[in-house]
TrEMBL record:
Lineage, top ranks: Bacteria, Bacillati, Actinomycetota, Actinomycetes, Pseudonocardiales
Keywords (A to Z) from UniProt: DNA-binding, Transcription, Transcription regulation
InterPro entries registered for this protein in UniProt: HTH-type_TetR-like_transc_reg, HTH_TetR
Feature: DNA-binding region: 42-61
Organism: Pseudonocardia oceani
Keyword Transcription regulation in annotation: yes
HTH tetR-type domain location: 19-79
Coiled-coil regions, chain positions: none
Name of protein: TetR/AcrR family transcriptional regulator
Amino acid sequence: MSVARDERQAPDRRALRRLQTIEEILELAEAVMTEHGVSGLSLSEVARRLGVQPPSLYKYFPSLGAVYEELFLRGQQRHLAAMRAAMQGRTGLDALHRGLDAGGRWALEHRALAQLLFWRPVPSFEPSPEGLAVSAEMIAVQRTALREAVSSGELGAAADSDEAIHLLSTLIAGVIGQAMANEPGVPWGAGRFSPVFPRLMALFAAAYPPG
């Protein structure tokens, strides 16, 4: 191999190694949050687990806030992807139920990230517009399903509203919050709380009767 070709490939290898290190940092950060609470995340603990000195992390993230921001963005993207996958090929209430069910399952499998996404465990952290845009997209997906449910006669016209979105978010956040607080480690679909989600969805539908 020529020296010139080797020099052209070297930056690619460095870039790959950088991406791998970033992924490792984020995985360790999520592990720390899971063990010590979302607000218990520290760059020094991540560096210790990575086997480097804390200043070395600043080559990848300029601050602890930047780590939170990346975790928030990726969490929103992955939560939305889980919802979309479950809703694929479905419409109306069926799509909505399946999407929220998948979102709840994802939340209990990624408890620390879910807290960062849907609660305010770090008062000093404010998500960037990029991260909030993904959250807005999630709401738009739910609103589309509500609109389909109204159009098909499953729900009354009032369900195509911000109020209905707020009611849905209250229902799913309540189930997730109760499960996290009272049954840590119990997966979605087991225990006392997540199994009642279908009944809550029935109550939601009853709040917006068709006709």
